[in-house]
Each structure stands twice: as structure tokens, then as C-alpha cells.
Amino acid sequence: MSRFIDNGNDTVSDTQTELTWFKKDSRQVLGKWIHLEKAMKFAEEQNAANFGGFKDWRIPKLEDIKTIFDKSFSQKDFGNSEIHIPAEFEAKGADCTWTDTVNGDRAMMFSLVKGRSSWINKFGEGPFAVRLVRGTCKKSES
Predict the structure, then answer these.
(1) What angle do CA 86, 128, 10 make, to 5 degrees?
(2) Helix (H) or strand (E) run with residue 75 in it
């Protein structure tokens, strides 16, 4: 059984970390690429709309997004490249996501293709998107 649960309201819960994710990324919801400042506004708008019944959506931390990346997962992104996120997430999403890690005009982006992070101009328009999350990541006991 998958640790990821499609909640039927465009959210996906991770039973291992106790995080809840947007099933779709911002490009799938908005139909366009966004830079980090617009991603923050997107989170505010989703909170105001009480998306999925919650008002605490946020940009993921790097440690959060790493929990949904696994080379054993395989689906296609918007350009038909392989990305490594669970099947419970909507297919054809972005191949990377913004994180909340910022240093001046640069922000950390996480690749869902390679599982690596990189610094990008936070005002870069794309092809960049965000996958919003809520909750506090619980570390699994090893």
C-alpha cells in the first residue's frame, strides 16, 4: 500500500511525513509559469480560498520536497520527461519546484528529475512552478 493518499479534494497526504500536498503544481492550476514572489502570492490566494479546507498552505522547505522525490517513482512532466514523484500526484506537472530557501535575489529550486537543488534567480519566470504543502515534516524513525 502506498504511503501517499489521494484525498479526493486535489490534495495528497503523506502518511509517513504527515505533510499534505497540492495534487497539482502552480502551473497546472494557473496555466502559467511563476517566479518565487508570485509563488508566495499563489500560496496566500489558496489560503484565502481555504483550498482543501485549509488556510496554512506554504512554499515547501527543501527537506519537505525531498520527501516526495524517489527514483522508484516514475511519471511524465509537462514536456514528457521522467520525473520521480508518486503516482497520486497529477501527471504532466513541472519538472522542478521552488523552495522557501532564499539568499538575496536567489532561491533554491529542486529538480524532480534529478533530485538535486540549485540556486536560481527568484524572479525567473520559468519554466518554474511551486507545489504547495502544509504541515510540519515528521522525520521517520530509522
Answers:
(1) 40
(2) strand 75-76
Domain spanning 25-132: which CATH class is it, in words?
A: alpha beta
Q: Phi/psi class of residue 135: alpha, beta or left (left: φ > 0; alpha: ψ in -120 to 50)?
A: left
Q: How far apart are the first and last CA of the chain?
A: 19
* pLDDT tens profile 48-96: 999 999 999 999 999 999 999 999 999 999 999 999 999 999 999 999 9
Determine whether 141 is exposed, middle or buried from the number of CB atoms within 10 Å of its CB (0-12, 13-18, 19+). exposed
pTM: 0.93
Hey, where are the domains in the chain? Answer: 25-132
Q: Is the dihedral of CA 76, 95, 59, 117 positive or negative?
A: positive
d(CA 26, CA 23): 10
Distance of CA 55 to the CA centre of its chain: 17
| Per-residue DSSP letter, 84 | -
Structure confidence by residue, pLDDT tens digits, 4-17: 999 999 999 999 99
User: Rounded to whole angstroms, how far apart are CA atoms 21 and 1?
Assistant: 18
